[in-house]
Every structure is written in structure tokens, then in C-alpha cells.
Amino acid sequence: MNTVTQKMKFRQSLIKYAAKYGTAKALIKYNVNRQYLHRWKKRYDGTLESLADKSRRPSRHPNQHTEEEIKLIKDMRKRNPH
């Protein structure tokens, strides 16, 4: 990831402020809840890239066709185009 978004900068400043002044003051200043702060503190490893949003795309689908089924479907479509 090459781009640094405003969200990533916001999350980094939130974490640094919390480390310096404490969690309660950071929550009040940045107007976020405790779960939000702790989620990003746990994920933060010192780099801005660790604060990027993760993909929400599913890695697999339980009802997805197998490769053999896809080949059968394509063959059937070739034989019966209409």
C-alpha cells in the first residue's frame, strides 16, 4: 500500500496521543469509543500501513462451483449456445 489516507493519519495520532496522555483523555479529545482505540492499538506495529483498512472481500464461498463444475458448464454452453 503506497498511499497514506487521512484515516490512517487520524488513527496514528489517536494512538500516539493515548500513549502520551492516557486512554481517557484520548477518547474525549478524538470523540471515539474505547473499543475503537483498543482495536487499532492492537493492530498498530509502528507503521502507517498497519493502520490501513483490510479487505472485506470473502476469501471463499461455501456454495461456489468447483473448477470441474465450471468446465462442465462452459462445455454445455458451447454445445448449446441458444
Characteristics of this structure?
82 residues; mainly alpha; 4 helices; rod-shaped
Secondary structure blueprint with pairings:
Layout: H1 6-21, H2 23-30, H3 34-43, H4 67-79
Beta content comes to under 5%
- Summarize model confidence as the mean pLDDT: 91
The separation of the N and C termini measures: 45 Å
- Total helices: the number is 4
What does this structure look like?
With 82 residues, the chain is mainly α. Helices cover 57% and strands 0% of the residues. It has 4 helices and no strands. The chain has helices at 6-21, 23-30, 34-43, 67-79. The radius of gyration is 23 Å and the shape is rod-shaped. The mean pLDDT is 91.
Short recap of the structure:
By secondary structure, the protein is mainly alpha-helical.
